[in-house]
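Slack export, channel: ligand-projects

TW: morning all. Re-posting the request from yesterday since it got buried. We need the structure predicted with the small molecule present, not the apo form. The ligand is pyridoxal-5'-phosphate; the SMILES is in the block with the sequence. No rush, but it would help planning for next week.
GE: picking it up
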Amino acid sequence: MISPRPLVRPLVRDLHAYVPGEQPKIAGLIKLNTNENPYPPAPRVLKRIRAAVNASLRLYPNPSAEPLRRKLAALHGCDPENVIVGNGSDELLALAVRTFVEPAPTAGRKQRTSPSRATKVQYFTPSYSLYPVLAASHGALSCPVALAPSFDLPPFAALMREGCWDFEAALSLITTPNAPSGRGYSMKQLGALCRHQRGVIVLDEAYVDFAGEHALPLALQRPNVLVARTFSKAYSLCALRVGYFVGPSDLIAALHKMRDSYNVNALGQIAAEATLDCLPYYRDNFRCVIATRNYLTQRLTALGFQVLPSQTNFILTRPPVLPAEEWLSRLREHKILVRWFNQPEVKEYLRITVGTDAEANALHQSARSILDGVAASAVPLRRRPRAR
Ligand SMILES: *Cc1c(COP(=O)(O)O)cnc(C)c1O
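GE: finished. pasting the full token output, ligand included:
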């Protein structure tokens, strides 16, 4: 008999896969854990998707999503050759690792004294927790660099210091605005970093529609900068998996070589094209989400939560009285799902997706009742007579 386990590559056997936020199907659950948009796609988008569900589903989709790339190029003022569409931006991030980074020499073979820059995937921590998984699954070298305690980028002089940021790393992945901190980085900081970087930089702008600034000009000016965007979060299309990169045509062409022939499904392409015809609808939604973000911040602050300023559709907050992990489970008892990360820099925080005003009110009510419960149970404790 063959034992199946040894048939798997050692690298894969030891791999810690990415842990996505839960998607439980519980009636009445308020789901604020995976940064989905609380508002549905535009009615015209749903109509176009429905109209596309017909006998033509037997045909393959456009292999390079060309009509969609043409529309995106027109939107961003570039050529279709500057755009690649992926099965979510996650697929493109993985492609970037496979396209620009050499796998490190495997254990057992002779290790070089200093790891080659060609094998390095560099990113700030905390940021998107998929990056180290992508590096590991490719056998590349993961190079985390700590953000400042305020979750801002370290000052440029600090990045330049020996042993901090590697300006020659093959690939650097920067979530901007960042997750899970919600913090936006200034174009000035990002521009300086990109100008000095010798390797490829991906600016992952998954949340940029909720921010004040975007870095697209860098992708259209610099030879080594790609900007990642997605229809998932801001455009309410998580289920259909459409994301894209904008950047120099040579880098985009290299990524095209590495992708699957039909990497973006037909309904996703149609939905994304229709979305670009309804941008005013989505811009109204962004304004609603931002207004609710401010409202939620103010309500939680009044209860003693420390809420960090956010440029995204979620907030990072340090809850009062109880540990964050305890808040996670107590809120769950109130049918409210938020996210907690067991990572040293953020384990005292909760990441809460901005939903509707009604959801913000429900969260506020539950938080207040949890705090009241703690206060009530604390009284008898204090009054309990000392043991003799
Ligand atoms: C959600 C998210 C993505 C992935 O988006 P998809 O297009 O749905 O794959 C990429 N980067 C960051 C930082 C995200 O939060």
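GE: first-pass observations. Residues 357-383 form the longest helix (27 residues). Residues 88-90, 128, 175, 179, 204, 206, 230, 232-233, 238, 243 surround pyridoxal-5'-phosphate (CB under 6 Å).
TW: perfect, thank you
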